[in-house]
Amino acid sequence: MAVQQNRVSRTRRDKRRTHQKLRVVSGSVCPECGAFKRSHCVCSACGFYKNREIIKSEEE
Ligand SMILES: [Zn+2]
Question: Which domain, by its residues, includes 45?
């Protein structure tokens, strides 16, 4: 098992964490239902992509 040999300073810890950040996902409004959808992905609300229904909705 790895055992920590030296204490990591606040500066070094925070420098390591500069790479951890949240990304804003790019997206647009779905033309079918108006919900927010990620671009180049099937709409999660209605299942449409390129004006065609890809995923059949369950409530029918
Ligand atoms: Zn939609």
Answer: 26-60
Ligand 1 center to residue 43 CA distance, Å?
5
Residues within 5 Å of ion ligand 1, judged at the Cβ atom: 30, 32-33, 43, 45-46
- Domain assignment present for residue 5? The answer is no
Residue 3 lies in a domain: no
Answer yes or no: pTM beyond 0.85. Answer: no
Query: Are the beta carbons of 26 and 38 closer than 8 angstroms?
Result: yes
pLDDT tens per residue across span 26-44: 888 888 888 899 889 888 8
